[in-house]
Amino acid sequence: MYLKYIAIQLLFLISYLLGLIIVLFLYPFRKNGIKIIKPFWYLLNDTPITDNDGGDYGRFKHNLIGFYKQNAIRNSHWNLKLLLAPKIGIKENVKGNLFAYNVMKPYKFGCNFATYSVNGTKYFRFSFTKEYKYFVHNMQIGALDIRYCFKSRIHIKPNS
Length: 160
Known about the structure:
Layout: H1 2-26, H2 34-37, H3 64-74, H4 78-83, E1 92-96, E2 110-118, E3 121-131, E4 135-143, E5 148-156
Antiparallel strand pairs: 1-2, 2-3, 3-4, 4-5
Helix pairs in contact: 1-3
């Protein structure tokens, strides 16, 4: 269960790093080079290649910077995440509390760990929120209902 999670996170990282490099070379072919872009579609965007957009700008400007932000930074491994998503179904053999401590106000502080299975596949969920003098640190790792998660956030406390 944990080794599978680590392997998937490493695959996401490699895909992200590849996307940062490859998207720069694909930008000139975004309109007319669908045959060139098609093999790299998994590193580009969240729309099917049949849309013939050769990459997506999302909410960003239609220039190199907008193309790069959308396809290299934001969506570089979006399709891979969907392909490797956890199984959807009823959670069984739940040990622990599946509620994640998060940084939504009012803050919920503490550490939470849970394991469960869906259709015989084991998953885990870990969340941690701690208050420090000037900030609040929140971390969430494991499997969510629709994707794997690795989040680490720092929120500056107001009036600090």
